[in-house]
Amino acid sequence: MTARHLSRAAWMLATAFLTLSACSTTSAPETYTQIAPGVDFRGVRTYGFLAEASTDRGGYESLETNFLKVAVAQQLDLRGMRYEPENPDVHMNFYIHSEDKIRTRQTPSMNTGYYGYRGGYYDGFGYGHGVGYETRVDQYTVGTLTIDMIDPKAKKVIWEGTVSGRITEKDVKDLEGTIDEAVRDIFYKFPVLDVTQEQKATSSQ
Predict the structure, then answer these.
(1) CB neighbours (10 Å) of residue 176?
(2) pTM (2 d.p.)
(3) Is the dihedral of CA 9, 10, 11, 12 positive or negative?
């Protein structure tokens, strides 16, 4: 392979790398949590759900609410808490929001113009190809899930977890699996460790 061919192959590899890097920076979900000061979560033994969650619609329980209740209950049970519908220590609530976004980015492109038929394998009389940039516009949807833990006596949020990330077609088709994974990501930062986390912490000591 000639030096010119090697140069072109290197350029194509660099272009692919830059494109993948640009995509990966926006696809990874981000997780945030907030804790009310002075709360001892070791005293939280029982949990329940609000009679009407923010994810319900028109006075009935939505599929999203149903999936969220199952996923959240599983995470709280793993942390030694018990479901109590009548008079729990905390109530759980959820909120889902989606927003359409547009991203503009520039990617390297072969600036061949009229002489593109040469395919970059040879140059003409001073009119060789160069590296330019083309602007691409991506439209995508960002979904955000927030879980609130509420002190029913004080009527205030004592813990809040949020995960936000790009929604794909696969996520929409497997809503239950998507919600379950999002809830696990949020509770990974919960103040009380689950059974698996405790075992890992113990074994590392």
Answers:
(1) 14
(2) 0.68
(3) positive
